[in-house]
Amino acid sequence: MKSFSLKAGLLVCLLVAGAFRADALDGAVVIANNSVAADNLTADALKDIYTGKTKYWDGGQAIIIGVLPDKTDAALQQACGMDTSSFKTFWQRLAFSGRGQEPKKADDAAALIALVASTKGAIAIVPADAALTGVKKIEVK
Amino acid sequence: MTITADKVEVMSLKNYNRKFALSLTAAIMAAGTASAYEVPLSFFGTNMPPLDFHGFASQGFLYSDNYNYLGNDTKDGSFKFTEAALNVSLNPFPRTRITAQAFTYDVGEAGKYDVVLDYASAEYTFNDEVGIRGGRIRRPQGIYNDIQDVDVARTFVLLPQGMYDARWRDFYVSLDGGEFFGTIPLQRAGSMAYDVYAGFVNPSMDGGLAMQLHNSLPSFIHLDSITPAAMFGGQLWWNTPIDGLRFGASGLILPSSTFVSTIQTPGGPIHPDNANNVVVQQYSAEYLWRGWTFQSEFYFSHLQPAAAGMSDTHIFSWYASAAYRFNKWFEAGSYYTEYYGDTSQSGNSLFYQKDAALSLRFDPTSWWVLKVEGHYIRGTGLLQDNSDNPVQNDNGWFMLAVKTTFSF
């Protein structure tokens, strides 16, 4: 019985530990289209965007998420608590039930930055060493 | 056999629907290599944002070693297992979104490739806490109801059929009406997402509900039509502070679900009262942890016939599933589910179905999915098509399901 309680306690600790995230993204930065007024976001606000709870910026502009599969997976996990496959499935569920707009994919960092630069309301996570042109960097607090 | 002019017209329409559906499927498969399509509206002389297109096409194969389940020929192997959709969305104004989806499906004898307007809605989001959506909408219930025909959004080929019957999508998935939705933050306790909806559902005579009614009525009663039914309900999801863990509860009420039937008597045709009051509850839990997905749901349905002398029916179903994604290509999963079509006869194999499933999913590319799945089943409570299965017993039987999906 004591052993069971110990295991249950450890499991709860593991689960609770999973609820806390580092505020900064490992090896990645958040960028947005220059039309976005915000210069920074809290980690919770970023998570709300990537989990579809927040779909519009304060001014009413629709948020368009850009993704870079395989290149920023760890940062995506940090941002929204989902791995790349779960994230893709999550947004396909929303898109095909008429409840959200699927994130736009890019093949490399330069293409993703170009997509964000040319798409009003766009936001994306890109590698920290990518050259940022025509977009704004969003600080994650 | 005599074929009347009416029948020829219906057959032509069916052929047209089938050709249209196959064309839609082929177009989506051809488009599969792209991630999405955008059509700028600048050529209309507007500054509107672009139209955003997505779609998918699925083709499956079903084989059963004992019963014709989910089709009248699955004992021989059947390819009558198709789904395809094409949707478009647009954000024309601040906080406003318009979206629509065309959908076609065929699962055995249900669906018949009829192309339907699956959803077409406009929504306005006041803030994260409150939004309103109206038109034809997909009805949320549990983890999968509003996405039960979206193969790419899950591990399994067949969802637990006692809860998400592939033949019943015309009745369960969409309704004409509206809903309020939103997510309320609960500070350190996570957040609460809600949907509250009301509207009407108009089941197809080619759908699973019509098939089940037709199958269950004595041969001397003819099913004429199913009356559009009012329905209202809602769903709550508690997104706990633990990443990936959520609990849900949903409810649905159909105060007067009615179908019209005719009994020919020596004194002329009569139309018995076939109104029913239906109340459904569903409870859900889901936990995504690293590559794992754990899910469990419990479903209770209470059917109350309006006609005097008819007894109530209680339906119960549950499942527990686990799936693990090894890498971006492979995922495996398993579930066990039980269905009881009448809980007062829970020991009768004609009314229950217990299913243990094992599934493997392979994603060769981001737009192409292949799945293979085995089911070991006891009971025949969900067969529906008794004429195709004249002998039923409680022996275990096996079903194979294979499916491929292209999406963009």
List keywords for this structure.
heterodimer; A: 141 residues; alpha/beta; six-stranded mixed sheet; 5 helices; 6 strands; B: 408 residues; mainly beta; Porin; 16-stranded antiparallel barrel; 3 helices; 10% helix; disordered N terminus
Concise overview:
The complex is a heterodimer of chains A (141) and B (408). Chain A is of the alpha/beta class and 141 residues long.
| Strand order across the largest sheet of chain B | 2-3-4-5-6-7-8-10-11-13-14-15-16-17-18-19
> Which architecture of chain B does the CATH hierarchy give at level 2?
Beta Barrel
Summarize the helix and strand pattern of chain B as letters.
Answer: HEEEEEEHEEHEEEEEEEEEEE
Strand percent estimate of chain A: 15-25%
- Structural class estimated from helices and strands of chain A: alpha/beta
Radius of gyration of chain A: 17 Å
Biggest sheet details of chain A:
6 strands, mixed
User: In terms of per-residue confidence, which ranges of chain A show pLDDT below 50 for 5 or more consecutive residues?
Assistant: 13-23
Count of individual helical segments of chain B:
3
**Rounded average pLDDT of chain B:** 87
Strand elements of chain B, count: 19
Shape of chain B: globular
End-to-end Cα distance of chain B: 45 Å
Which structural category do the helix and sheet elements of chain B fall into? Answer: mainly beta
Oligomer: heterodimer
CATH class of chain B: Mainly Beta
- How would you write the strand order of the largest sheet of chain A? 2-6-1-5-3-4
Number of strands of chain A: 6
Strand content of chain B: over 45%
Describe the structure.
The complex is a heterodimer of chains A (about 140) and B (about 400). Chain A is an alpha/beta fold and about 140 residues long. In chain A, about 40% of the residues lie in helices and about 15% in strands. Chain A has helices at about 1-15, 45-50, 75-80, 85-95, 110-120; strands at about 30, 40, 65, 105, 120-125, 135-140. Chain A has a six-stranded mixed β-sheet. The radius of gyration of chain A is 17 Å and the shape is globular. Chain B is mostly beta strands and about 400 residues long. Chain B has one domain (about 5-405): Porin, CATH 2.40.160.10. Chain B has helices at about 5-30, 170, 210-215; strands spanning about 35-40, 50-65, 80-90, 95-105, 115-125, 130-140, 175-185, 190-200, 220-225, 230-240, 245-265, 270, 275-290, 290-305, 315-325, 330-340, 350-365, 370-380, 395-405. Chain B has a 16-stranded antiparallel beta barrel. The longest helix of chain B is centred in the first third of the chain and has 26 residues, at about 5-30. The interface of A and B includes residues 59, 81, 82 and 98 of A.
